[in-house]
Amino acid sequence: SAVISQKPSRDICQRGTSLTIQCQVDSQVTMMFWYRQQPGQSLTLIATANQGSEATYESGFVIDKFPISRPNLTFSTLTVSNMSPEDSSIYLCSVCRHAGELFFGEGSRLTVL
Amino acid sequence: DAKTTQPPSMDCAEGRAANLPCNHSTISGNEYVYWYRQIHSQGPQYIIHGLKNNETNEMASLIITEDRKSSTLILPHATLRDTAVYYCILHPPGNTPLVFGKGTRLSVIA
Lengths: 113, 110
Description:
The complex is a heterodimer of chains A (113) and B (110).
Chain A: E1 4-7, E2 10-13, E3 19-25, E4 31-37, E5 43-50, E6 56-57, E7 68-72, E8 75-80, E9 89-98, E10 101-104, E11 108-112
Parallel strand pairs in A: 2-11
Antiparallel strand pairs in A: 1-3, 3-8, 4-5, 4-9, 5-6, 7-8, 9-10, 9-11
Chain B: E1 9-13, E2 18-23, E3 32-38, E4 45-50, E5 55-56, E6 61-64, E7 70-75, E8 84-91, E9 104-109
Parallel strand pairs in B: 1-9
Antiparallel strand pairs in B: 2-7, 3-4, 3-8, 5-6, 6-7, 8-9
């Protein structure tokens, strides 16, 4: 298994501000993934973050809105920029230890007013 | 897009077996069937996976039909703590992300 810590666990933010979510893993991993879960919905992949290269974004997600950093093999950040109420979601970090077996953090619940 | 179809919700009596179906008629030869669950306010949790043989672990059993077009996750003795959304996901070999569908919301009732 993998222990994944996310910060903050929850936050209430004002419209127009930005928030950075941190994801710390207890061991080195090559692939890290960021997901979004809107209220009552399933998980949607935002991007794949590899160490040493730019993140790869899924359709509908852009770097200006969701910049990602991956400075080393145990850490990543996701920033939600210029937030609006539509960004209110749970943001989840996950890592792949074995093919197909993903481990998830507990998520960061954002509420944008 | 998710390649699986699951019922949106199911109920199960506590102590009984919960059988969660999943249809994946367009599965490719190299795709595994994975099951995850998400308990309220938590991140998804891996349960089990298989390619074509039936699999069992301490949490559940996975039954895959011979043509691999459908599968069933079995929780042999459901408890209240098994109340969650269960996701059936197809995934090829390799360290690539999972694509989640809508899942089945299982409610275990006392």
